[in-house]
Write a structure and sequence with these properties.
Layout: H1 6-32, H2 38-75, E1 77-92, E2 99-110, E3 117-127, H3 131-140, E4 146-152, E5 155-158
Antiparallel strand pairs: 1-2, 1-4, 2-3, 4-5
Amino acid sequence: MLFNPMVFVYWAVSAVGAALYFIAAIRVATFVTFVPDESVAVVFGFLGGSLFALVTWPFVLMVMWWGRRAYLRKIAAPISATVIESGHRVTHTTNSPFATHRVRLKVTFTHPSTGVECWVKKEFAMAEFRRSTAKALLHRFPEGATLPMLVRGRAAGFDLALRPQWVDLW
C-alpha cells in the first residue's frame, strides 16, 4: 500500500478549513443582512450563512481536487495501474429518500522511482441523480482494466476527472 502521511494533515486542515469557511459565511451573511434589529439580523445571518456554506462547500472541495490534480499533472509521473478490485454499492439512509451510489476502485502498480509493487484504493460517492455516472465508471474500469495514475514520491492519485469522496482526496 502506498501510504502518504500527508493524509492526516489533509484531514486536519480540511476540518479546520470547513469550520472557518462556515464561520466566515455566517459572519458575512450577518453583516450583509439589512435589518434594523440586531438580534433578527443575527438569526437571518446565521440561517442564510449556514445555507450558503452548505450549498457552496462541495464546490470548494471540487476546486481543491482540481488544484491537486493540476499540481500532480505538473510534477508527477504518469503511469498505468491495473484494477484489481472494483465494486458498486448503493446506500440508503433512513432520513433521506435519495440513495448514494458508491464506486470503490483498488489498483496495483509498480512505483516508477522505487520499482516496488504498490496499491491504492479510492471510493467515489455520487448522489442518486448521478447513478448513470457511477455505473459508467464501474463499467469503464472493471477488474483487470488499466487506469491512468499520477505518482510522485509517496503521493499517488487517479488521473480521472471525477472527484473521490472528500476524505479520499489525498
